[in-house]
Amino acid sequence: MTETIIKVNLNESPYDNEKIHNRWHPDIPMAEMVKPGDDFIIECVDWTGGQIKNNDSADDVRDVDLSQVHFLSGPVGVEGAEPGDLLVVDILDIGTFEESQWGFNGFFSKQNGGGFLTEHFPEAQKSIWDFKGMFTSSRHIPGVEFAGLIHPGLIGCLPSKDMLEEWNTREKGLVDTDPDRVPALATLPYGDTAHMGKMTGDSRDAAAAEGARTVPPREHGGNCDIKDLSRGSKVYFPVYVKDAGLSVGDLHFSQGDGEITFCGAIEMAGWIHMRVNLIKGGMQKYGIKNPIFKPSPITPKYDDYLIFEGISVDEWGKQHYLDVHVAYRQACLNAIEYLTKFGYSKAQAYAILGCAPVQGHISGVVDIPNACATLWLPTDIFEFDVQPNADGPDIMLDGSVDVPLSKDK
Amino acid sequence: MTETIIKVNLNESPYDNEKIHNRWHPDIPMAEMVKPGDDFIIECVDWTGGQIKNNDSADDVRDVDLSQVHFLSGPVGVEGAEPGDLLVVDILDIGTFEESQWGFNGFFSKQNGGGFLTEHFPEAQKSIWDFKGMFTSSRHIPGVEFAGLIHPGLIGCLPSKDMLEEWNTREKGLVDTDPDRVPALATLPYGDTAHMGKMTGDSRDAAAAEGARTVPPREHGGNCDIKDLSRGSKVYFPVYVKDAGLSVGDLHFSQGDGEITFCGAIEMAGWIHMRVNLIKGGMQKYGIKNPIFKPSPITPKYDDYLIFEGISVDEWGKQHYLDVHVAYRQACLNAIEYLTKFGYSKAQAYAILGCAPVQGHISGVVDIPNACATLWLPTDIFEFDVQPNADGPDIMLDGSVDVPLSKDK
Amino acid sequence: MTETIIKVNLNESPYDNEKIHNRWHPDIPMAEMVKPGDDFIIECVDWTGGQIKNNDSADDVRDVDLSQVHFLSGPVGVEGAEPGDLLVVDILDIGTFEESQWGFNGFFSKQNGGGFLTEHFPEAQKSIWDFKGMFTSSRHIPGVEFAGLIHPGLIGCLPSKDMLEEWNTREKGLVDTDPDRVPALATLPYGDTAHMGKMTGDSRDAAAAEGARTVPPREHGGNCDIKDLSRGSKVYFPVYVKDAGLSVGDLHFSQGDGEITFCGAIEMAGWIHMRVNLIKGGMQKYGIKNPIFKPSPITPKYDDYLIFEGISVDEWGKQHYLDVHVAYRQACLNAIEYLTKFGYSKAQAYAILGCAPVQGHISGVVDIPNACATLWLPTDIFEFDVQPNADGPDIMLDGSVDVPLSKDK
Amino acid sequence: MTETIIKVNLNESPYDNEKIHNRWHPDIPMAEMVKPGDDFIIECVDWTGGQIKNNDSADDVRDVDLSQVHFLSGPVGVEGAEPGDLLVVDILDIGTFEESQWGFNGFFSKQNGGGFLTEHFPEAQKSIWDFKGMFTSSRHIPGVEFAGLIHPGLIGCLPSKDMLEEWNTREKGLVDTDPDRVPALATLPYGDTAHMGKMTGDSRDAAAAEGARTVPPREHGGNCDIKDLSRGSKVYFPVYVKDAGLSVGDLHFSQGDGEITFCGAIEMAGWIHMRVNLIKGGMQKYGIKNPIFKPSPITPKYDDYLIFEGISVDEWGKQHYLDVHVAYRQACLNAIEYLTKFGYSKAQAYAILGCAPVQGHISGVVDIPNACATLWLPTDIFEFDVQPNADGPDIMLDGSVDVPLSKDK
């Protein structure tokens, strides 16, 4: 029987669990040690550590303390791992807690985090998604049910001292170009709300003051939010410190490519079952800088798509140069507009794109000056036919239900 | 028997064929008229109109006249089509000419077009790909063979007068921000090499002077270079002028997401078989700005991938803000580095990423400041095992063969 | 939180659990009642009720009491269901018990049940399969690991009185054609080991004496052993009695098409999460005799196959007339012979075909006198390359490990 | 440019083409010789050699001379091939003739060939299918259009003398058990209508008298009618004679598993592009008796199925013992009954099952006494929704169109 080496209690503060941390730092002690070939289970709180509740108000999303995120379980040390190795991780399974069969999706207020379409959705909104086995649906968004592509949003190994310094330097450099921007250009170290695992005292305070925030993906993987790192996938992580130090959290029941709503996927607490192995000297052998991975043999097969194009002319008519970010935003806005024709509110449509197994493809990046991106919307997630026909769309929703919104205070 | 309504002769200049044009303008007369429900075949020259030859020198890629591209077949008028309609196009089949069983891929010189990785590959290079039925391989890149995901790189309807003006205005605005840049930020109208189909005399000259270049994708679709617009797909195009005016060209035997080499996919001459129908008033009914489409039921199934991550820190260590373009470039560079470990030159690896059915996903676009993009490399296109293992890669190529390069003059 | 309406205790006899039964009879009282739209969880013992143990001897397979099988959980009554309705069952999830992370596969002795290849494997053998999350492997069969296509082997509604009588009559008719055959042609009612759920006394004894055995699939579904009835599928069952009476059991972690080893798939105890709905009068509306179903959106994608053909000339050279059974047996024997070239024993190869997600296709049934069947062996389940090449196979196994065999007493 | 080594003329008799033959015999001279590594194109007439016409009468199907079939193109000799080798054939492409964009499907009269459901459809019927690129539809069966899974129904190498003798002996043995049966149990040698390629004179007559008919699949492959031997697949054929002697014909635009209508698939004339290689001594190296193959990376993806079960109790209530043939027939009859609820005639439904990419799975073959087979009907081939719902089916067809029938004379 596989051992659960890290457990969580959803009723206590993650700060009280010394096998949890919320910053990246090489000095964080290993929470547990395993051997190559071992498999083990790790439990995780949701990324906010329980700040968001299963109710019909978006107040908690509006008021979230983002300096606390993400609460990660780990680090797990792997005997024999050394800098330059590749840590091979088989994600054998991921699941929910029996007593917590729900997740949340939200849009942050532009004043507190924002998101991909924050200009269009400047205020906090939230939808709750119920789990029924492999499937999910939301009481705030009728007419849609789908199988979750469950995955960790955040996973990776501890950075070395040098790597940490490089992260802090380059991100501070970016913030310094526009220090007063709202939302900020990057999240810099912030000791007050840091949770450094087993560390205590002065060494804890010193590490907390320089520990990298967990928000962006970086060389080690980290907060990649790649929906395809799902159960059944195999990941090769670069190792930067002795014993590797693998941490994981931010579990998602499902997510669309881009995690465009930022808060973000269908966010949940749960557990992950992994097996670890090593490729000694693998970074050099294979020329690895960022993690590489192989997808799972088991994923939801939604093979019928309606595909929306977007180009890098923004919604106000401005021409951008090969900007895939702008192009994908247009594809998303096009899909949202389309879905409103069936009766969805724009917020409901946006939430669907953030939660469902939507694909985002970089289709063309050389045809100056326009990048072209495509958003692939699976049609089988809808309980009605969303395909175009000569008669035009039937309005399937009466507007009586919407995604709760909480105005900025 | 389905009629071939536009024919081409690969031995004559495309300028001599009045059913070809290389600019977008509402006044270009219809080359042929069809009715809703009709299916028909259209032949196309390659996008350069025969400038690139089946040989082992990249001189022609270096010296290409890019002001001539793309040579399109059309416009085909559809009876009854009016502005605001959706033109429904079933791509029933696409094929090669029996006498032209090859295609080309290249990198343009930075002095003449450049490309996605032009900083890394500043000089012209070319690879020739031979077709054997559905499969292709290159004498310049050993060890790789795959089934082509054949598609038109460029397809769409004529713009209206207003839309044309908007294009020209916004693109000139961009060029004006850095008019001397090499390569240029956009390609502006250029009458000298314009081919305006059946137009002649002063009206031809006037239209040529303002006709939009065909390089970028735009609201009408155009040069989207979406590999998934393959045979078997169904596309819904916005209509802007009476009779719609559907033109098509730039056929690709295969292409990776992004068409990262710019010259670009495996470029070919060939034919396309289409069926057209109308959704009257469909733009309004479905809120359509850009084309939408449904993928084909028949596409190459390469389900085993090795996936490379990239983040928006560039190859010189600079931090960019949620820049998917930079992130995808890093994923591509990571994949290239990986393939060199098996003996490929960097140019060979780059060409593979441009030609093979590689997927490019927008994985995360909200985790400030790093975007995360993934490049999905199908492993089954290689004749050897490219997956990581504990022993490290076997070097499968001896370096005796490479992609021809022609130095700038 | 979804309720578990039927629980089992793996340490007690299934005969002591009145929500279990092992015969089909219309008078068996409902174990629980639910409403249309409800979802609920049901626990199941393995089909033999715990007769087979996690050890390295096949004695228990040899000595199994097959008159006891299959132990089913149920029947579950659905309010409002009436004869002629369709009971729509969404299989929302299926899982294992934390304390029972293993399953078994075996070949019965020809003297006690036999199987598809009993002429070739006349004595009892057994393999144990360990579960690691979604994956399974066996200490008795090295070199193979795969994701399970988990499903119930047996599921369906109670028969009506008339239907039960028809079953008993036609099956006894068959047995009477060769009453002394070993193994028997069919399994007839047998009261001694019957478990009739909540029934007691004379009515129990009367029902036990005529209750249909659970071995074959019948009009109601029953022991179909269809591997594609996996979690995520949706099944439409005919209803024959008031309240329907849905029973389920014989859970399989994985199985190949045909369940050719009879004991059979990877057999396990576990739980199943379902949701029920009704289509009133659906049997008549849709002309339904046997259940119909839709496959799951989530199944293991093993898309690279090696496919073996078989025709209806048997292994002793005899010509049969369009006999798919013989043809599929030849395809299986061909695959077994092939796998021995890599070092597997024939028994190991046979067990792989019974357990792995192998497909069996009826390819041709009209080309007199030969039927043609194909067995699709997924190549990615092997840790080495099983594909043919010019050099011939590498022997990957040294024969030191085999599937335990127990000689007939 | 790939050479077409065998050409056909659809306007002349196949008997006049010496690169065609319609019997299997080791003495038939090679039509052409190729070398390992070569690729080449072969043209084929339809299996009846043009007996069936593109019209609206089934008279030609009723009156067909089945002693003439199948007309095969070949044999192609491969230099260096010897008995015991494996001939590796890459099917690079398959296509139609520009002047022959149609195919036929039919049910033979029970008096002249019959078929899988001949008891239910005892008289000749025919449907004509038009090709539009990759898609096909029939004027006799409204509401259905699909992409063809194009493949050769018949392909294989010449038998040796010994093998031929074994075939003739065992098939005659079967016929002798019921020599007057209609339809016959097997098709024995018949010299009158034999076409022995380049053979002439006495040797031709001697070979014609003993040449095996082409109807059944046999050890060499032959008339397997496996729909998955489609373009893009790779097949390993046993070699029995010097130079192998590969012949091919009976091209199908599409077919369902089982080719249940016998006449059969969507039958067509066309061409096939192949590449050949050898594995010396491969039969022994890999223990090969029948061909093995790998499926194509490019096939129609119809992933949404409605699946019908059938068990081995026949349509008259009789119990059969593990008879997959009977079980699949019940699954087919169940699907036909279902489709009639939407307005199809039974003949139309039967033709759809014979022509569309339907899957037939051997689901259970051990649960005495019932085999269980499943028929997988792709739902996306229909222009309307064929899935069950609470309201019951909409009748989509008015019965004004049906499949032509010709009564026995």
From TrEMBL, chains A, B, C, D:
The keyword Nucleotide-binding does not apply. Its EC number is 3.5.1.49. Keywords: Hydrolase. It comes from the Bacteria. The keyword Repeat does not apply. GO terms for molecular function: formamidase activity. InterPro entries: FmdA_AmdA, FormamaseFmdA. PANTHER family: FORMAMIDASE C869.04-RELATED (PTHR31891). This is Formamidase. It comes from Litoribrevibacter euphylliae. The lineage of its organism: Bacteria, Pseudomonadati, Pseudomonadota, Gammaproteobacteria, Oceanospirillales. The gene is fmdA.
